[in-house]
Structures are given as structure tokens and as C-alpha cells.
Fold each of these.
Amino acid sequence: MKLSQFKFKLPEDLIASHPCEVRDEARMMVIHRDTGEIEHLRFKDIINFFGDGDVFVFNDTKVFPALLYGNKEKTGARIEVFLLRELNEENKLWDVLVEPARKIRIGNKLYFGDDESMVAEVIDNTTSRGRTLRFLYDGSHEEFKDALYKLGQTPLPPYIKRAPEPEDAERYQCIFASNEGAVVAPSAGLHFSRELMKRLEIKGVEAGFLTVHSGLGNYREIDVEDLTKHRMDSEEMEVTPQLVDLVNNAKDNGKQVCAIGTSVLRGIESAVSMGGHMKTFTGWTNKFIFPPYDFTVASAMVSGFHMPYSTMLMMVAAFGGYDLVMHAYEEAVKEKYRFGAYGDAMLIL
């Protein structure tokens, strides 16, 4: 497959800048792979397609407030700092991106907060844009994280052209998020409300969780036409024995396994064992999935509507079939579905 095969015309006004008022009231396009039929429903209708013993696999990663604004010493220049990951707890070292990158040098100090009480020093230039910061803070690690996160804002995707608002802290987060570490929300999971989760539980649908700490690589532009030459950024993930038992039992009993989002699908496929089963996994994955690809574990998936040329669109096309998915995307544009993390949903059966 070529990069150019994942181009489609997406009007700017179809990119959702705010979430649906009620999580499970978003629209849902249902694609039936066996017949090619497409249905237009509401997300809460997902319950009608699953029953007792089926398994939904969710990503329980938790997005942290990774976006900070500081001022450079002496010049006072405003610097955007995007926290990527904590490198060393004891020394308060963080891997970050800074913007504008050209203004920052090793040894520069940055001041954060109205009172400039949080200070960081640039100690390394790791990539052309990346930096390592050491935060200068007296106090426990817990107090430091609290102080740092109070200064931070929700890291909305770059295609949402507005500043983060207070409600984003809750809405750009799944209700079951528990393992902190992502800067990108697993957006398919955003559609699940507490009421819907309870209704699924009552119906006998079981919930399993894996963790994939989704990073900014999800938004990195692919710069090669030949997709076999693209290298995905690595993401930290964990598949527990509990999830493995849940999924493998469902498979053995002929039940459906539904992956909630591309991060879950990627996580499952990074932990596949023989005969369409899963195995435990703790580590990093840089698995890049695009058509054609043979999925052996998940029998259904939920996804949002992704941007042109994105790796997420490629994974959905691999699962649903390239021709059918690209046709569905044309239909979605025509029917004015909302795209992006705050947009509508797609169920592929």
C-alpha cells in the first residue's frame, strides 16, 4: 500500500472542536464486513450487537496535563513545553518538546506559573526539537508532580485549533482511565458513559483492559510513499494475565472480542500467540499495521473517524478492508459525521 491511497477530502468544518454533549449520544456508523452494509445509528446502540460472554477490550491509559507555558530567563520569551515522559524520578528529568525550539539552548532556565515558582533547566538537546529538562524543586516526588500538573493543560490534538478549556480535563479522558502515561487519549473509548458500561455489564458483556501509553507519534506525518519504509514511534504497553485469560476464554467459546480503538488493536496484535490467542506482554511496541493484515484475535472494533494519511486510518482500513473503509469514509463526509478525537464513532463487525 502507498501513502497516497489514504488521501480523502475532509472539510475543515467536519473536524469536531468540542465533544458531543453526552458521551454515548454521538453518532455511530456500523459497517458489516460480510455484506458491505452500512448503518447509521447512535453510539449507545452498540449494546444491540453484543451479548453474554462477549468481551470488550479497552485501553485504560490516562492522559496527563502535558502542555505547559513558561518564560525564558532574561528575555522572558514565551516557550511552549510539551511533557512527553518522565525519565528519572529522583532527578526530576523529563523528555520534552519545546516551541520555538531555536530559542532554547543547553543551560537555559525556564520559569513556570504566575509566581514563577517552578523552574526547569535545559540539560540536553536529544533531537532537533526534543530536550531534556531538569526541574528544580524541593519536596517529595508526589508534591512535585502535583505542582507540575497544576500548571499543565490538556494536550488536545493539533487538528483541534483552539486552546484547551477546563472541561477538556474530564472529556479528553476515558471514564475508566487509571494508568497515567499518555499524551494522546484513546479516543474510541471516550464514547463510553457510566450508564452504557453498566448496561453492557448487565447484558453479560465483559470488560477487559490493557495499557498502551499513546504518544505524539500518532500525529507524526508519514514522509515516505512506500508504507513498508515507515517506522512507528515506540509506545509503552502492558497486557496482564487477567486480560489474556478473559480474551482466550472468549475465543475458545466462540464469543466476540471487540477492540475499542486502534491503540487496543495495536496492543492486542503486539501480544498475539499461536492459534489466535493472546499472551502477556510488558514493554514497548512499534508495530505498524496497514493493509493487507490478518487479524486473528479481535472479531470487531470500535474506532473514531481519523485524519487523511494517518496511521490510525491505515489500521482501520486493514481491519475493515481497504475498499470498504475508504467507501465508508466518503459516506461519512457526505453524511457530515464529525471527525477526530471529539468526533463520532465507527463500529466494524
Amino acid sequence: MITKRQLLKGSALMAAATLATPGRSADATVTPALTPITGDIDPISVREREARVARAQALMNWHKIDAILLEPGPAMLYFTGIKWWRSERLTCVVIPRKGEIGVITPFFEEPSVRESMTFGDDVRTWHEHESPFKRVAQLLADRDIKAGKLGLEASVRWFVADGLRAAAPKMKLVSADPITRGCRMIKSPTEIALMKKANEITLRAYGEVYRQLQAGMTPADVNTLMRNAQTALGGSGVWTMALFGEASAYPHGTDQPQEIKPGQIVLMDCGCAVEGYQSDISRTFVFGEPNAEQTRIWNLVRQGQNVAFEAAKIGVPAGKVDDAVRAFYQKEGFGPDYQLPGLSHRTGHGIGMEGHEPVNFVRGETTPLAPGMCFSNEPGIYLPGDFGVRLEDCIYMTEQGPQWFTRPPENVNNPLGSLA
């Protein structure tokens, strides 16, 4: 059962942060049903998607790439609004350096693909006995591209690349990352707003879950609470991870049986999407009274977040943020470098339509920080065999420097944080 101290603490936290109703014991009345909070969002407009294609075409001119090919996934959704999936039957989008985009899809999928198209009308179909790659080659030829460079993202599958080489032998396959990354790395105000809403959903869900933690719960129990709360609040594609005690010392956990016990660390890493844009928040609680060592490590990690935030200045290479955190932790007796006990992973990662995107806060990353970039800020400390602490809040870069999507918590007794 939840202790009296936890009930009082939960009640005060929820009232202060307005994230959930006051805490109460497990045998109290059922929590009122959560409702979606996404009614005020503005989806990405057709005009913005067309501007993205124009930006991609400008970058193709700069990099001398004649066209790029996108398989279903975040990049296809980003540029076209088409929501599709990958299978052995190729559906793809071709963006030429000049002219209209084109879609290749199986004949029987055309009506469904057209349903999610937001602009463009050049859809070319293929039957089961035909080659989709010949359709790609013909589309390129119709855009006056018979030879040159065709860009593919790193995630494009081998059979697609192999089929393109055979169907368009005069095309040289190159990386499309300079184009897709060049567009997606800098978020627009609308994208930032969608990410704020996704983060709001996840933070509010944390408030619901924190209030309901009980001794004896398993990771599956806690994950179910978090998944249901994020979904009820309007999040899609929700994901959750809950680690207890020693398992929290391993960033992605363990398969060993776990259950919540008094005085134990509960580390959670969770997120969702709104209109395809992601949140990613980690919180570390102590179930009951934190001991001195738990409090010390928690406070150091919280300071580590501040070190990263203060180091993230416009024009600074992204890797310098990671360097600053490691230097701080080493002075406190952790590391050195990526050694344990200490911070064994990068300080943060890019985030947007994917939970992990370039660029990262990692040693050696030379890309300068620029307005519109978004990152996680998660400099955990892990003590193998004992416990770990990770606090993660995402930031976005502005002309004036970094801004929080969610404000980190201030101490282990008030471990939720608040909306920025």
C-alpha cells in the first residue's frame, strides 16, 4: 500500500503542477476518466508540406542530387502526409529536383494511398507480375532524369536499392540524408507546438501513474497504467518502460522479475506522438523514503541536466554539451568518460517525428546548434548492481538559446516537474 507520506506528497504535487487529482489510496474511488487534450492542435498544413518539398528541391540543387526516393515512414509522412507501411510490395514517393512529386504503389492499393495524399496527383501503379522499379525509372524519365544521382535514405531496404540499380542503371545511388536531414532537423513553430502537446500528454500521464504506484506492482502493471493514461489523453503510438531497483542501473532494463518494494527506485522512460511528433520523458521516483545515496545521485543527475542546458548555446558544436556533462560528473567521482559507475550513454539525442533523430549530444558531434533543433536532455548516472537515476526532458533551440518542452523536477521529493 502507498504510505501516508506518499499520499500527502502526491496530493501536494498534483495540486501544484495541476497534472492529476490529489493522491489517494488504492481502495479509494476510481479516478475520473481522462479525456483527450488534443482538441486545440493545428495539424501540419498542405502549404507547409509543399514548402518542405520546395526546401528539399533547393537542397538537391545544392548537393547536385537529381531525385530522392522515400519508402513509407517518417520522411514520407513529413513531406507528403501519406501514412503507409512497408511490406514486400513497394510503395514509395519520388521527389525530383524539379517538378511534381510522384507515387508508386500496387494497383490494388491506389485508392487507399490516395486517401492520405495531401497534394500531388501523379500516382503510378504496378500489378503483382510487374516491376515497381520500372515504374520508378519511367517516372524519373518523365521528369527528364535519365541519368544522374538518386538519393536513398539509410533505412531504404536492400531489395529496393537492388531493384533500382537494375531498372535504372544510369542512376547512381547516393545518400539522401543531406536532403531529408537538412529539412527535418530544423523544426517549424507548428512542429514545436505538436511536440509540446505530446510532452504535455506524457507529463500529465506521469502524474496519474505516480499517484497510483503501489508495493507489489510489476513493470507490466506500471506500463499498463502509463500506456492507458497517455492514450486516454490523446497520445498515439505510446511506449513505456518501467524499471525497479537494480534494473534501473541498466538503461534499457533487464528481463529479471521485478516488483515495487519500499525504499526502491522506480525509473520510467515513456513517450507518445501527436500528429506523428514525439515526446520522450524519463522520471525517477523513490517508493517511500529516499535514502542519502539515492538523494545524492538524484540531485547530481538533476544538476547534470542544468549543465547540459547551459552548455547548449547557438553555434556551439552539439558534442560540447556531452563534454560539459562528463566533465561535471568526473569532478563528482564518476566515469571517466563513458565508464561506469557514471553516464554510459550519450547525454541526449535529436527528436522529432522519430524518437531518435540526428543530431545527438554525443562526443565528437561537430554540427553547430541552430534554432529549431530539438533534443532530449538525459544525463543519467548508473551504479551497476545497485540502482540508476535518469531524468529526461526535451529542449528546443531558439535564437535566445534552449527552451524546455517540460520543466524538470527540482528534488526527489517533488519528482514530476511541470509544464513549461
